[in-house]
Amino acid sequence: MNGTCFPRFPRNDLGMISATNLTKQFNVRGTPLIAVNNLSFQVSDGEVYGLLGPNGAGKTTTLRMVMGLLEPDSGHVEICGMRSDGQTTEMRKHIGLISTNDGVYPWLTVREMLLYFADLYAVDLQVARERLEELARLLDIGRFLDQRCSTLSTGQKQRVTLARGLMHDPPVMLLDEPTRGLDVVGSQTVFRFIDLLKERGKSVLLSTHRLDEAERVCDRFGLLHRGNLQFEGTLEELQKLTGKQHLVDIFIGLISGPVDGEPVDPARMVITTNE
Amino acid sequence: MKEYLNNGRLWRLCLKELRESLRDRRTIITLVLMPILVYPLLSMALQRLIVGGISKAEPEYAFLLGTQDEETAQRVQNLLMEARRVNKIGISSPIKITRSDESTNKSTVPSEDNKNAIAVSADHVGFSIVIVEKVSLASALGDAQIDLAISKLDVESVAFERETFPSYQVQVEFRQGDLRSESAMSELRRALQLLNDNQFESVRQRINARLPAVVQMKANGIGQRLDPAASIAGVIPLVLILMTITGAVYPAIDLTAGERERGTMEALIATPAPRFALLLSKYVAVVVVAILTALANLFATWITLSFGGLGQAIFGKQGFSLWILIQILPLLVIFAAFFSAILLALCSFARSFKEAQAYLIPVMLLSLGPGLVTLMPNVQFTTLLGIVPLVNILLLSRDIMTGQSELAPAFAAVFSTIIYAGATLVVASRLFGAEAATSGSQETWAELLGRPKKTRLLPTIGELAIFLAILFPVFFIASNLGGMLDLRADSAMSFQAVLLVILFMLLPLAFAWYRRLDLATTFRLKSFADPLDSIGMQVARSLGFFVSVLLLSSGLWMVAFESYLLFENWSLASHLSEEERTKLKDTFLLIPFWLVLLTGAVAPAVAEEFFFRGFALSAFRSKEAPFRSVLYTSILFGLFHVIAGNILSVEKLLPTLILGFALGWVAIKTNSLWPCILLHALHNGLVFGMSRIGETELTKWFGADTKHLPMLWLVGGGLSIMAGITLLLVASRQTRTYENIA
């Protein structure tokens, strides 16, 4: 469909993650609330896509639909060619998930916990053991592999969580607000982790409200507001379009009023749609 | 699902949950510390309360009569011995005389425990005489060292009809308002009154009085004698079960709501692992912890009862034997399995520890209610109570402990508890993690209880489990009601038939409609001919199925007949007298044969096929291979036939298993319910027809005085079964099943 406010930019049509016309509506105390409205985007391999937006923009709902945890009212998701409507189980094997509130099992050792998740992803035990050694090296968790998780420091726990997301070596990684509540060192670890994912050619879908961080790590962005994708593109494209330098300014301009000299009511603003 | 059941993966998942709960100190505390603390305390409390209440052959203590001197003591002793002789009942042990100074003061004084224990059966009351020295009688009585004080006992000789008779004047002091002392008083009065009565009686006889006694009373006890042991035996399972629950509560919360609190829930449900596998591993862990707790508690109980003397008081000489222990343990395991499922279902719904606890507390309190019911000694463990969760296991344990357990309610208890556990587990697996995926709890319930939006071809095993949990108690209560109504034989049969149609046909149909299941595929209602076949092929197949069903039924009824005979001794009819049996047969013969066929063959065939070969088989087929599905269905079919009203018809198990298996096989091969209905109806009709003809005629036909069918018939039957199987195999070649299409 045309009739968009912003021009659409060429994308990799064979994206590893491809969401098509996702819509999800919730009932909050009787009144319907559209959490995600006709959302479409694609992420190709080796690309980091930032799903940005303020709290309540629909980021988590989108991620859950991508993960197959939540069934969209309409539309579908495709991960590595597998569709969310019908192949959910297969699809999930190809997705890794790391989110803000991820915890660890206090009574299990790091090794036990990581192997447990490998089992949940039906990874062969031998393969899982080898991968564990590799990840231990990469994420520097080898020293405390046989320690109970309850004895770990926050930073150590964070690295264990990151390792957990890679135990099944998924081609697609979803990061839900991965740096929320972390200090500089912690955030740095996450950035290095994202670099590692890129290096390995994984598609990364990152949801965050920290625009400054997104600027640093993402290749492309989708700006989400009230369930609508307001804009999609690279930083340069955004800058060119809005004449603003930083994502923060672009975003504030986008959600709070006139953009491009044109008054826009965010509620009416259905910008990107797909055929 | 498969890849989670192979390679020991499920075992490793269980191991993780077990590690998690067993490494947690809080689990260990409930597991080990509680039994160590609770039972000794409980035993002490019970001992105080109970020991007095248990009837014994010999009185452990007696009322203490205090006298001032030896002579009075002798006289009192003689009087009481005489009273006992007159009474002709009571105790053979001698009435002891002791001196309060023979040992320490304490030995003659009733122990603290006994002082308040007055619930003593009158037959077992004893008296013991104490000669009080050093202190005055009055102060000994006041200090409760004795129960009664015989302060004066004078005797004089009175002449009557050329004979002299002794006449005693007894002065007794007792403590007013003291139950024990007052009971001693009335017991003594009763004993001495006997002597007076006896004297009058002998005088009356001597003067040959025609005058009858004013009153001649004969007392007959009715009902059951209140057995205090039974009520105490009821306490023990209650305590055991409550402790088992306690052990399971913490892991159940920790492994479900705990996942959410630790923040591992989202990662967990984002994995492709099926929810049921996740929940199953948690379930296994909770059940294991519950069983470990049960074992620890059982062991502690055993120690307490064996070494505290309480066991012998409750269970008699053999005490709390190892055999009782072996019988109770599986019950606890079944109960643990049931309650763990309930706990998991509740906790799966909770978002936090606090919330989980808030859900669990009412459940724990609720389970105390039925628990208290079992403490009432006169509650009979009927088969109807056998399907009430918790109550059934409690009553069964009590009956096992007192050695009065019966087979029918025991079976109902075990079977229903397993069904409930299965259904609850299915519910739990739906609830588990649902909160993390959807944002509102209403949606979870809607998904679970509401009508699905999409139509499906086959029911799931979960739906079958839930349906069974509804069907079983309803069926059970209804068929019991039928028994209670005391209907005439023909009405009873009609009632049973209507019940079958409602519960096994209409109820599954309604359920399937509600869950938007395709009725045609769920119940195999389509024509059994493959629509892709040519018309000629369809006719040929149908004919083949029809003939093979006829062949099968003409042999299968003999199998049923003979396998029934194998276990005939177990049947209820075998316990009836010849007269009763003839009467039963006569009533049966009075029912018009068309009614027998309608209610005994057609109705059950239609109704049961709808449920067993329709709904149940389809549910199993949604996950399992044909052979297993048929096997599970036939076991279900057999078990439902074993429970007939208030009795357990074990003799029906083998015939119905065989028939169920045959019907299931026919259903799979023909892919249609109609041949099954026909086979079932023919089979039942033939069996009823044979019993209609009666033994005498049969004997005449067979020419031998045996209940068994003649060998020639059996050979013929076997051949016809084989022919039927072959024909069915041929006729069903290259048909497509719904499962294949689905």
Question: Can you tell me about this structure?
Answer:
The complex is a heterodimer of chains A (275) and B (742). Helices cover 35% and strands 24% of the residues of chain A. By secondary structure, chain A is an alpha/beta fold. Chain A has 2 domains: 1-94 and 170-275, Rossmann fold (3-Layer(aba) Sandwich); 103-168, no CATH class. In chain A, a hairpin with a 2-residue loop joins strand 1 (17-28) and strand 2. Chain A is globular. Chain A starts with 16 loop residues before the first strand and ends in a 19-residue tail after the last helix. Mean pLDDT of chain A is 80; it is low at 1-14 and 258-275. Chain B has 742 residues and is mainly alpha-helical. Chain B has 3 domains: 2-52 and 228-450, no CATH class; 55-205, no CATH class; 491-515 and 535-735, no CATH class. Chain B contains 30 helices and 7 strands. Chain B has helices at 2-5, 9-22, 25-50, 70-87, 105-108, 112-116, 137-142, 179-206, 228-262, 265-269, 275-307, 310-315, 322-348, 353-373, 391-401, 407-431, 434-437, 441-449, 461-484, 489-514, 519-522, 535-566, 578-590, 593-621, 626-642, 653-670, 674-693, 695-702, 711-731, 738-741; strands at 63-67, 97-99, 127-131, 148-160, 163-174, 643-644, 647-648. A 5-stranded mixed beta sheet of chain B has the order 2-3-1-4-5. The longest helix of chain B is centred in the N-terminal third of the chain and has 35 residues, at 228-262. Chain B is flat, with a radius of gyration of 36 Å. Mean pLDDT of chain B is 78; it is low at 53-60, 89-93, 102-124, 439-443 and 738-742. The interface between A and B is medium-sized, with 36 and 31 residues.
